[in-house]
From TrEMBL:
Molecular function GO terms recorded: single-stranded DNA binding; telomerase inhibitor activity; telomeric DNA binding
Protein's UniProt name: CST complex subunit TEN1
Organism in which the protein naturally occurs: Rhynchospora tenuis
Taxonomic path: Eukaryota, Viridiplantae, Streptophyta, Embryophyta, Tracheophyta
Membrane-spanning parts: 16-37
Keyword entries, A-Z: Membrane, Transmembrane, Transmembrane helix
């Protein structure tokens, strides 16, 4: 028997590589020695490696949620499509425990949210929530529901500042 026996293992999955590299990247970036001159080169290196990594939400079939205000969710909107992944924020008006349907609104528009996939979220009427999920449109365009996959409470969110940041990011991305 050889003194060193190598165990040949299959390569780790790409998401494990992404996690480890992200951990190392952020720990290096937070180090006081590298925070000055080297941080820009580290960021470029990180972006280069991550762009070559094959793990992404898209490879899993999960689309990112497009951030919208509820009042922007109109039939004339380009994002008003069955299956469109959206990120919506609203005040909880009602919650039906028996079918796990939440009703959120922004003062003008209301929307039903199916919360069956959200297990660790507690609901409090009058609190503000943000949901990411897929839009389900019924036979009537007014009959719509968000099938939530992520939800969080955002009571401390400054809604005016949030709306301004959405507008600025859309200008930057050329969505307007």
């Amino acid at each position: 028997m050889a003194p060193f026996q190598f165990l040949f293992l299959p390569p780790p999955p790409p998401h494990l590589f992404y996690f480890l590299f992200s951990f190392l990247f952020f720990s290096l970036l937070s180090s006081p020695l590298l925070s000055g001159l080297c941080s820009l080169s580290i960021v470029k290196m990180f972006l280069g490696v991550v762009s070559q990594c094959s793990f992404s939400m898209a490879s899993l079939g999960i689309k990112p949620g497009v951030p919208l205000m509820l009042r922007e969710l109109q039939p004339s909107s380009p994002f008003f499509k069955h299956g469109q992944s959206l990120r919506l924020t609203g005040k909880l008006e009602a919650y039906h425990v028996e079918n796990r349907i939440a009703v959120i609104s922004d003062g003008v528009v209301t929307l039903k949210v199916n919360t069956r996939n959200l297990t660790d979220l507690t609901f409090c009427i009058g609190s503000w929530y943000q949901f990411i999920g897929e839009l389900v449109i019924g036979l009537d365009s007014n009959d719509m529901l968000l099938q939530a996959r992520v939800g969080r409470i955002v009571d401390g969110l400054d809604l005016n500042l949030y709306q301004q940041s959405l507008h600025l990011s859309r200008n930057l991305m050329g969505w307007i």
